[in-house]
């Protein structure tokens, strides 16, 4: 990540001039090594839990609520151009504020923001190919971003040459700048809801809100809000169902997405959070959530994400000791999609018809069950994956009964189900171009580019999880076969004249 050469000093001066307060006896901004996040905050003395490190007036956050652009553009027009949906309104506001130069309240703040990113959104095809098998590529949403720019931003820009002069189009309103602002939001914004407290509530009353860094990006309920993300297949938003009063999803209010100066200077590492942003009526406060020793980094949380998501949103990966002694990110997750399960069942049971698969999977989805199964370092076999395999293996009579009772099968890890899951995992491993051994050897080299190295770390972590599941499944199958052998032996024993009765 490259950021403008302006010093942290300039940010601190601007921040305080604008009404922000920082306890400069307790914390400073410094350059840590890149492996520890680069520019970040350090404790200058021992800081007790509960200490307020800095406080940001709400009107110093940059969002479509605080920028004057939406009002100048006209709120009805803003709505007509759909700038209140997703991030395009905030991106346009940030472009416009940057175009105002020193006239903008956020000018100094904007000048310390990164000007390039290590996120795969900016990788070339060769580097992207290194991510094959991981879920990142399908979530990049490059085409969605381009579509958003063309269909929302460009018409809005063209409608108001007084606000967006054509002479500034290349410098401030290009597709490249759209990407840059989108990536700044993706890696630095917070979800800052309107104050929900009682009017007469104490000014100092605090709410722990959804303000972990990047929480504004936690828009899984409404992925369309993120122009840099992609709504996975099967998650289309069905307006009619909504109208018919189906389960109402809480819509993300896009004006909650805000850039929060100073709070976005904090780095994060898995399980290391020692400070967090809290909401108050007029300010947001960064408060120590643990005692922090002098010299230690002050860490926020980005939600302890898997490396695939860290790389996609922030451009870095976490590597630390795993419970099994290896190195990796304990938050890593591998996704296996339902179609991967269908393929494995079909390979082992070729007599099951296409019709039977599609009938059962349709019903499974209608029942509201998942079509993507997460495998993580807990090494717990995911119940929905076991249940869907069993669903495909039900006899016709059992299937009819399950459907009548509207009851998916129990997630029982018997040998049939385990063998099929094993096949699905083996197939999933084939999605990656390299093996664990090859990746481990590659990581020993010192001539790798950062993109290549980070791609290897992401895919290696995922493959190690899948390998660990294969080892676990092999153990379970062996246990079951030993038990079955013992039962058989016991059943046969009387015949052999040992006189022991079968338990059956
Ligand atoms: C919210 S900003 C934090 C401040 C940032 N370091 C800066 O210089 O402005 C998030 C960015 O910091 C970097 N970062 C944060 N935590 C990191 C970590 N544990 N390792 C490497 N980079 C990290 C990533 O580039 C990420 O996109």
Structural write-up:
The protein is an alpha+beta fold and 504 residues long. It has two domains: 2-315, set domain protein methyltransferase, domain 1 (Alpha-Beta Complex), CATH 3.90.1410.10; 333-491, Rubisco LSMT, substrate-binding domain (set domain protein methyltransferase, domain 2, Alpha-Beta Complex). Helices cover 41% and strands 12% of the residues. The protein has 19 helices and 16 strands. The structure holds S-adenosylmethionine (SAM). S-adenosylmethionine binds at residues 1, 3, 37-40, 187-188, 213, 264-269, 314-316. Residues 220-234 have a biased composition (Basic and acidic residues). This is SET domain-containing protein. InterPro entries: Rubisco_LSMT_subst-bd, Rubisco_LSMT_subst-bd_sf, SET_dom, SET_dom_sf, SETD3_SETD6_MTase, SETD6_SET. Residues 196-257, 480-504 are annotated as: Disordered.
Task: Report the portion of residues in β strands.
Answer: 5-15%
Catalogue the ligands. S-adenosylmethionine
Number of domains: 2
Mean pLDDT: 88
Indicate the CATH class of the largest domain.
Alpha Beta
Task: Report the CATH superfamily of the largest domain.
Answer: set domain protein methyltransferase, domain 1
Question: How large is the radius of gyration?
Answer: 27 Å
User: In order across it, which strands form the biggest sheet?
Assistant: 2-5-11-10
Organism: Ephemerocybe angulata
Protein name: SET domain-containing protein
GO cellular component, one term: nucleus
GO molecular function: protein-lysine N-methyltransferase activity
